[in-house]
């Protein structure tokens, strides 16, 4: 645990200093201070340090260093997307409930284990989840120092809730997390790990804010299979631990609705090939997988439901119906309630105005196609209803949102295995800087909180909004 915390802290503390010209106006705390194509200030005001987030973005984060600047971008990244791979969390031992506490490419040749942490039925039942020290370190290092005592106390509780990580760069942290889980389990605990596989080539093909690190044109499919092979080997290494995976947020749903977008049409074959490879290679006895299933405001419209069911069922059957492929995860990084008493105005025209209605509409269609799928639902940012969204599709840093239902397997539905937090609340969905290479128009809308940093980097104002609007409150 300590080693991983130190690694996360080291990543967060990476800063490149150059001499500061006396007349240079330094960026304020939380503002951008560097990145590919950046022409603004490259230093930070006193009390902040310019910290590399990714190739496109460096940010002024709280720190004791003197004003510093970053004119060069390091190759390592802290986080490169708006959606989270790993989120260990800790839960109660009561069956059916989860309560958190502290915190050679494409070969697939690693043999599967013959024993280990096997399960039947709902994989969230009968285990505890393990708290993610990476997210906890973000909160303790970046969020808490500027909060009031009351909010700081509440924020410390948020740090104990399950969230997830992403990108190939996180694989070593996943390994360290699993090592911690094994150590705890050997001491008598019964933890499982939650992780998101999120590295498709040309990922998020209909958006700009969270483009990934792999390109189809640059051998991305082979590199993706390499990435999956590394995850497979790691899962087999820890075959004594139950592992729950969310597979590729913001991917397959685009193949239902966005094939009119050239990038999505061009990525279709690669998405299907890579997803097939992932669910086939990760079909291991200690694994439960959930494909990303969009959300009520995306695939829940009547015209989208039948093609969505057909597509997802085909993916399932083309992979030879993997035993570990349990179903779909919905509402990833979104704001929809699981169940709300009256439909928000921006859902007008769709009878499936929350995730419960969406799941109950989609599940029978999937079953008719040959897949009796189960679901998990991201409720990390769904606590305040209605939100401040002006349109249902306004996904970027939406105003009027709050932390939502805590992770739990006590869902009251035979279709829904668990409520989860996939998106780490406080990490940006995308930058509002119109000059940035990854600027998306959705992040500049009037119902998006601004100014916002690059996707995946810390957004203090957004974290505070989620904390103040949390329902249930912390």
UniProtKB/TrEMBL annotation:
<feature type="active site" description="Proton acceptor">
    <location>
        <position position="429"/>
    </location>
</feature>
<keyword id="KW-0326">Glycosidase</keyword>
<feature type="binding site">
    <location>
        <position position="334"/>
    </location>
    <ligand>
        <name>substrate</name>
    </ligand>
</feature>
<dbReference type="GO" id="GO:0030245">
    <property type="term" value="P:cellulose catabolic process"/>
</dbReference>
<dbReference type="GO" id="GO:0030248">
    <property type="term" value="F:cellulose binding"/>
</dbReference>
<dbReference type="GO" id="GO:0004553">
    <property type="term" value="F:hydrolase activity, hydrolyzing O-glycosyl compounds"/>
</dbReference>
<keyword id="KW-0378">Hydrolase</keyword>
<feature type="domain" description="CBM1">
    <location>
        <begin position="25"/>
        <end position="61"/>
    </location>
</feature>
<feature type="binding site">
    <location>
        <position position="295"/>
    </location>
    <ligand>
        <name>substrate</name>
    </ligand>
</feature>
<dbReference type="GO" id="GO:0005576">
    <property type="term" value="C:extracellular region"/>
</dbReference>
<dbReference type="InterPro" id="IPR035971">
    <property type="entry name" value="CBD_sf"/>
</dbReference>
<feature type="binding site">
    <location>
        <position position="166"/>
    </location>
    <ligand>
        <name>substrate</name>
    </ligand>
</feature>
<keyword id="KW-1015">Disulfide bond</keyword>
<dbReference type="InterPro" id="IPR001524">
    <property type="entry name" value="Glyco_hydro_6_CS"/>
</dbReference>
<feature type="signal peptide">
    <location>
        <begin position="1"/>
        <end position="17"/>
    </location>
</feature>
<keyword id="KW-0119">Carbohydrate metabolism</keyword>
<feature type="region of interest" description="Disordered">
    <location>
        <begin position="77"/>
        <end position="117"/>
    </location>
</feature>
<feature type="binding site">
    <location>
        <position position="395"/>
    </location>
    <ligand>
        <name>substrate</name>
    </ligand>
</feature>
<protein>
    <recommendedName>
        <fullName>Glucanase</fullName>
        <ecNumber>3.2.1.-</ecNumber>
    </recommendedName>
</protein>
<keyword id="KW-0732">Signal</keyword>
<feature type="active site">
    <location>
        <position position="204"/>
    </location>
</feature>
<feature type="binding site">
    <location>
        <position position="298"/>
    </location>
    <ligand>
        <name>substrate</name>
    </ligand>
</feature>
<feature type="binding site">
    <location>
        <position position="423"/>
    </location>
    <ligand>
        <name>substrate</name>
    </ligand>
</feature>
<feature type="binding site">
    <location>
        <position position="427"/>
    </location>
    <ligand>
        <name>substrate</name>
    </ligand>
</feature>
<feature type="active site" description="Proton donor">
    <location>
        <position position="250"/>
    </location>
</feature>
<dbReference type="Pfam" id="PF00734">
    <property type="entry name" value="CBM_1"/>
</dbReference>
<keyword id="KW-0136">Cellulose degradation</keyword>
<keyword id="KW-0624">Polysaccharide degradation</keyword>
<dbReference type="InterPro" id="IPR016288">
    <property type="entry name" value="Beta_cellobiohydrolase"/>
</dbReference>
<dbReference type="Pfam" id="PF01341">
    <property type="entry name" value="Glyco_hydro_6"/>
</dbReference>
<dbReference type="InterPro" id="IPR036434">
    <property type="entry name" value="Beta_cellobiohydrolase_sf"/>
</dbReference>
<dbReference type="InterPro" id="IPR000254">
    <property type="entry name" value="CBD"/>
</dbReference>
<comment type="similarity">
    <text>Belongs to the glycosyl hydrolase family 6.</text>
</comment>
């Amino acid at each position: 645990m300590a080693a991983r915390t130190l690694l996360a802290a080291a990543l967060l503390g990476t800063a490149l200093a150059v001499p500061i010209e006396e007349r240079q106006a330094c960026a304020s705390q939380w503002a951008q201070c560097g990145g590919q194509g950046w022409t603004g200030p490259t230093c930070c005001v006193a009390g902040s340090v310019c910290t590399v987030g990714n190739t496109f973005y460096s940010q002024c984060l709280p720190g004791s260093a003197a004003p510093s600047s970053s004119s060069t971008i390091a190759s390592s990244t802290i986080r490169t997307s708006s959606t989270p791979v790993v989120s260990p969390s800790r839960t109660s031992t009561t069956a059916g409930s989860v309560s958190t506490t502290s915190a050679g490419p494409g070969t697939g040749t690693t043999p599967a284990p013959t024993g280990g942490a096997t399960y039947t039925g709902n994989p969230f039942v009968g285990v505890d989840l393990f708290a993610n020290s990476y997210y906890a370190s973000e909160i303790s290092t970046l969020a808490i120092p500027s909060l009031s005592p009351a909010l700081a106390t509440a924020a410390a509780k948020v740090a104990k809730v399950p969230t997830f990580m992403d990108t190939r760069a996180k694989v070593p942290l996943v390994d360290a997390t699993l090592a911690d889980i094994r150590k705890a389990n050997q001491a008598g605990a019964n933890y499982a790990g939650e992780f998101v596989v999120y590295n498709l080539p040309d990922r998020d093909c209909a958006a700009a804010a969270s483009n990934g690190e792999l390109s189809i044109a640059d051998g991305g499919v082979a590199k993706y299979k390499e990435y999956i092979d590394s995850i497979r080997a790691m899962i087999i290494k820890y075959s004594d631990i139950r592992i729950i995976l969310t597979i590729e947020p913001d991917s397959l749903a685009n193949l239902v609705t966005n094939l009119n977008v050239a990038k999505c049409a061009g990525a279709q074959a690669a998405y299907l090939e890579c997803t097939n490879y992932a669910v086939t290679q990760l079909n291991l006895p200690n694994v439960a997988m959930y494909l990303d299933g969009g959300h009520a405001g995306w695939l829940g419209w009547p015209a989208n439901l039948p093609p969505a069911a057909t597509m997802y069922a085909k993916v399932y059957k083309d992979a030879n119906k993997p035993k570990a492929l349990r179903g779909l995860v919905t509402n990833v990084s979104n704001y929809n309630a699981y169940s709300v008493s009256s439909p928000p105005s921006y859902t007008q025209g769709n009878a499936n105005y929350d995730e419960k209605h969406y799941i109950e509409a989609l599940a029978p269609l999937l079953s008719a196609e040959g897949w009796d799928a189960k679901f998990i639902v991201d409720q990390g940012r769904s606590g305040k209803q209605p939100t401040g969204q002006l349109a249902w599709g306004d996904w970027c840093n939406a105003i009027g949102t709050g932390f939502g239902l805590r992770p739990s397997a006590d869902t009251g539905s035979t279709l829904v295995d668990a409520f989860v937090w996939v998106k780490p609340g406080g990490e940006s969905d995308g930058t509002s800087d119109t000059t940035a290479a990854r600027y998306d128009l959705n992040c500049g809308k009037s119902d998006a909180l601004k100014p916002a940093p690059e996707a995946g980097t810390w957004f203090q104002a957004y974290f505070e909004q989620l904390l103040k609007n949390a329902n249930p409150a912390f």
